[in-house]
Write a structure and sequence with these properties.
437 residues; four-stranded mixed β-sheet; SH3 type barrels; single chain; alpha+beta
């Protein structure tokens, strides 16, 4: 066999095995790119906003790396799937009031969606105390031991009480400051720019696509009208309905009240009042005579607006974690602790499919007292770009009251500007520092 043929075969085998050194690439000074659409990298799915460090280029392919659970992963990614991260000095004025540990994720979000703006919500609540409150009031549909307080089933066949570490993770706003989840902080009053056609596209492929059989009206028309008259986001209503009724929930099919099993059907599209079961939601609907889906959508929207949106709980996050006042855990919409995360993903999907992601939006992000440096996901399975906070500008990081000197381009990279150097942490560190020259 010719030597050149053998080399080609070895390169193909190496590429199949995930080894990426066979092809040469032009080395460049390391810089950060952000994934602009879900894509694959070394057999892992990278979601929108995931940062990678690029250190080389070969044609339309970038050679770069990221850290997954503390392990460096290197490989190629198409330049079409990423955008370069550019530090925007003018944006710094907008995020001055946020703690340092919030700022780098916000900078990445700003690079992806410069039309979005961010305001802090200072809760004055102690983070750990608040996490304990919601740990006692939240459920999760898993049997993973790290995620649950005990294997006892609280609701249905899979819902258990969350563990304290899981409560800390989902409560921590910094864990939602990526493009895939950040819409959980969007303020959700009525947006007149959301059109009927956009609502129809959001409902495509669901059980609520086309004509609603009772009213003979388009499902999207019902949501659009309800949003307008009740001063609430149409996207929220549609996303909430999809979240609650995917798979044909009882609130969509209709159910009988407990005290009248032979009586009329009632509907609860948003599962309002379904604290422990779908039946609770049906009883709630029966008490308000929601005997058609149109009523459930219209008056359910009014209930959400009157009891949440206009009372300060005007984001997906605040509807789960009622930290807008000093009495958390007493007025939350859902017991599912992951609901804001999954609903935010559905909302982003709807925005992208309708070209609505690049419009002006306001995101209000809570801040707590005594926040830990980092609240990791209890199960080390997800790619994370987070860790302990940068302590000072000569690249020491504080780790559990000790210090570690970091190595450039391994633990952090720098971006030079005329008057300062912008430092960004890598390898399970987060935060950044600007050093004046």
């Amino acid at each position: 066999m010719k030597k050149t043929s053998l080399i080609k075969i070895l390169c193909v085998i190496a590429l199949f095995l995930g080894i990426h050194r066979c092809g040469s690439y032009k080395t460049v000074a390391p810089y950060i790119v952000l994934v602009k659409e879900n894509t694959s990298f070394l057999n892992q799915t990278l979601t929108i906003g995931q940062p990678l460090v690029v250190e080389g280029q070969r044609g339309s392919q970038y050679y770069g790396y990221l850290y997954a659970n503390g392990e460096k992963k290197e490989g190629y990614i198409s330049s079409r799937n990423v955008i370069s991260y550019i530090f925007d000095e003018s944006f710094e004025k907008e995020i001055t009031s946020f703690p340092d540990s919030y700022k780098q994720p916000l900078r990445f979000l700003h690079a992806l969606y410069p039309e979005w703006s961010y305001v802090p919500l200072n809760t004055s609540l102690d983070f750990n105390n608040t996490a304990s409150i919601f740990q006692s009031k939240s459920l999760i549909d898993t049997d993973e031991s790290e995620m649950i307080a005990s294997p006892d089933i609280i609701e249905g066949q899979t819902w258990c009480r969350v563990s304290l570490n899981a409560s800390r993770y989902f409560l921590d706003p910094r864990n939602g400051l990526d493009a895939y989840h950040a819409l959980m902080f969007e303020k959700l009053t009525y947006n007149p720019s959301e059109t009927l056609q956009e609502g129809k596209r959001m409902l495509e492929g669901t059980e609520m696509s086309g004509i609603e059989p009772q009213s003979k009206k388009d499902w999207a028309e019902l949501y659009r009208h309800s949003a307008e008259v009740n001063n609430i986001s149409m996207s929220l209503l549609i996303t909430r309905a999809i979240q609650e009724q995917s798979g044909g929930g009882l609130g969509l099919r209709g159910g009988h009240a407990r005290n009248n099993p032979q009586g009329p059907l009632f509907y609860n599209i948003y599962n309002i009042g379904a604290n422990t079961s779908d039946q609770d939601g049906i009883d709630f609907a029966a008490s308000r005579n929601w005997d058609t889906r149109e009523k459930a959508i219209l008056y359910g929207s009014k209930y959400l607006s009157d009891n949440y949106i206009t009372k300060g709980q005007d984001s997906l996050y605040l509807q789960k974690f009622d930290v807008h006042n000093n009495n958390p855990g007493h007025h939350y919409y859902m017991s599912n602790i992951r609901a804001p995360y999954s609903e935010a993903k559905n909302m982003l999907k709807g925005y992208i499919s309708n070209n609505m992601d690049h419009v002006k939006r306001i995101l209000e992000i809570p801040i707590y007292n005594n926040m830990p440096a980092y609240n990791p996901y209890p199960i080390a399975t997800d790619i994370k770009y987070a860790g302990t906070i940068m302590k000072n500008p000569d690249c020491e990081y504080q780790i559990a009251d000790t210090y570690k000197n970091l190595t450039r381009n391994v633990d952090y990279i720098t971006i030079d500007h005329d008057s300062y150097t912008h430092i960004i942490g890598l390898n399970n560190y987060y935060g950044s520092f600007d050093i004046e020259k």
